[in-house]
Design goal:
Blueprint lengths: L2 E3 L7 E3 L67 E12 L1 E6 L5 E5 L3 E5 L23 E6 L3 H4 L1 E10 L2 E13 L5 E11 L13 E4 L5 E4 L21 E5 L22 E4 L4 E6 L5 E5 L6 E4 L38 E3 L5 E6 L11 E6 L4 E8 L2 E9 L4 E6 L5 E5 L4 E9 L2
Length: 432
Amino acid sequence: MTKRLSLLLAGTIISAGALMAPAIAQSTGDTSPLDHVDGEPPATGEEATAAGEPVETEPANAPDQEPAFPEQTRAPQPAEMPEVIVETVAEDLPQLWSMEFLPDGRMLVAAKEGVMHIVSAEGEAGAEIEGVPEVDDAEQGGLLDLALAPDFETSGRIFFTFSEPVDGGNHTSLGTGVLSEDGDGGGTLSDVEVVWQQSPVYDGHKHFGSRIVFTPEGNIFIGLGERSDDPIREMSQDLGATLGKVIHITPEGEPVEGNPFADGAQGALPEIWSYGHRNIQSAALDGDGNLWTVEHGPRGGDELNMPEAGLNYGWPVITYGVEYSGQPVEEGITAQDGMEQPVYYWDPVIGPSGMAFYEGEEFPTWDGAFLIGGLVSTGLVVVHLDGNRVAFEERVPLEERIRDVKVGPDGAVYAVTEEDGSSRILRVSNAG
């Protein structure tokens, strides 16, 4: 059932960053129309922008804000950008939030409505996996990220985040269970347990964050949202809450020994790694094992960070964006003592969701780059690093909202789309 497509669904090859097409329609950054309503459409990569120039040419939503250092935003495109072939490997799936490759190359997917499926190599989804706990799937909530335990091949254990309905509202929770297959394409999740819950509970349906990243030591980072609303979002600065945080826990849900607030001084929660985040929906380790995240900004101000232990990343006190109304966020400042600058930011936004560190032979020019899904930019955003700074940025237009990104066992890039309540899985390979 593999199907080739191009920007206009009529060909097979896309040249990243080097095509001319009409600007895409304005889009929202998540499942809520309140997120990422931007005054200008973002660059998609279809625009005829020369190598060596920034792919983004539209004016910023916050034009008076200045970057703190050169190339903190609008980095140039690299001199060489690959042409890609885009194929549909699965379609007519429910609206997905995440996917993971199983050891044999099949895909385990999580649908926002609260179901999991195993998708075969031929792109066919098996029956719903039984045993998935109830989710609150209103607006941005639902069954969210997936991760295989490091010992999955022997244990069958998986981890997943979801918006858990509880008395008083909901919160982001980390669950785990053992996946067993029934031989008919379906299966069961058993030994299900919720091992960690975000606090406090809130009666809202936005900014659950949720990306799960296993460390080389077998522990877990989770990037979390601050629940969006004002007031509540200021709790991203509160070390007694896990809203707007990166947490660092064991697979059993306990704080990792050596965490920056492990002593619990002044009421700080010991699982917190970093704080002052808005809504993290992209996270991955680099080749040296460092955690990198991308969080949704407001109107402008999506941020790439390398969160370090105990540091404050500023939201909502500082930001490179404005309120959806166009008014300043709080005092309208972009820097303050004791708060970290993002490594990179986007204005207009890309609407980040999903992220993978590329290491492979399929795309030699992407080796060591981060691939980020764009809900608003409707494609892949490729960020090339030079140390801990962004040297180049390019865009691969896919003309669909991209919810998750994975590098396959074949070295190709797989992108999960979401449009009109359904999803496809696209395979992006090198045409060269």
